[in-house]
Amino acid sequence: MSESDLLDAHGAEITVARNQLVDGWHVAMIIVGVTITLPAFLVGASIMSSVGTRTGLAAILTGDLIISLVGMAAMYIAVTRRQSTYQILDASFGPLGSRIISFVIALTLLGWFGVTVAFFAEAVAKAFLELTGIYLPVQLCIVAGCLLMTSTTIYGFRAMDLLSKFTVPLMFVILLGGVVAIASDYSFRDIWFAEPSGAPAAFGEMVSMVVGALMVGVTIVPDLARFIRRPGQVVTASGGGYGIASSLVLVLAGLPVLMTGQVSLIDNMFAVGFGIPALVMMIFASWTTNVSNLYSSCLGLSQAIPAFTGKRLAVVAGTIGGLFALSGIMTHLIGFLVFLGIFIPPVAGIYISQFLVRLPRTVKSVSPVAMLTWGLSAGISFFLARAQMSLTFVPALDSLLLAMLFYALISKATGALLRQRPDAGF
What we know:
mainly alpha
């Protein structure tokens, strides 16, 4: 059965065929493609402008080390079980519970799809204007972007793999070339000892920016990692994608602000004659990111609404994401999605804890232990963040670690109470 047949039959590649397995570096390349985005550029610039080169580099490496370790754990579960995020959730949340969580994550990803396709449309319109002198309406570019990204998503993981092989090296060359051009008038010493140019911030806050920006993606990384050939290759996939490549992207995106004082990497690249390549990079970056967003969203929706499957699922989901963009929701949605950065990581904490502690699969339709853990860990992390307090200086990491701890403790306590009724489960 071909990959597109699997998409037709199950809505979003629920099964993994032997001929679909790939080495870990393939998944690393997809992760890199998702990482090279305008939000990542802004994160890198914010970090460097707040703490300078040396502290900024340390913060980025620390944040990406945390993400790499969490990513390895999530990937290992996916490879050993050959399951997507939403199938993995069944074991800890129960069938109905996992549908609820899947639906929440899917909506979050469609929101990001809308934000990213809006970035895509602006880059296309600006590039077309620079090349031809003709202005294309951004709304038209949004519709074209949705069609392009949805048609790519329909062909699943293999399409993402091929897309990343072509676009990631090109984007890296453009990014590196642009930053080298910007830095050509500065010595290594000038760059290495550059002082902060923006409002000062604590080291922990900068680490939090890195972890928070990537944690939701790590939570759903099993959707990609289940295709990795062998468990040992998760080190290559997570370490290469999150540990090395992500760090390089954030550093390259952040250094120009210390030299020019201009936060926008794209504007900095325009100033040194890299304008069109910069826009091409943004177009490809938005494309690769949104194919991943829509792919995982389709997996979640197919789990949440089993009757709604097939290629039409990708079409409907892409249409919804496009409507988000056309409505201008981007200006209101980002705060909501950052807020969800505290509420989504506990999902990973729960399924990682369930696997590591070897807790039995729940027999409940909705696991009260998992739902209680989710609410407690997310709620505590949210109020700590509101009070400007943190256990680890990283709210997203707080919620993940609390979920791992609470799920293990509550599950063990519940198991002891129900020892006389082993069929009751939890």
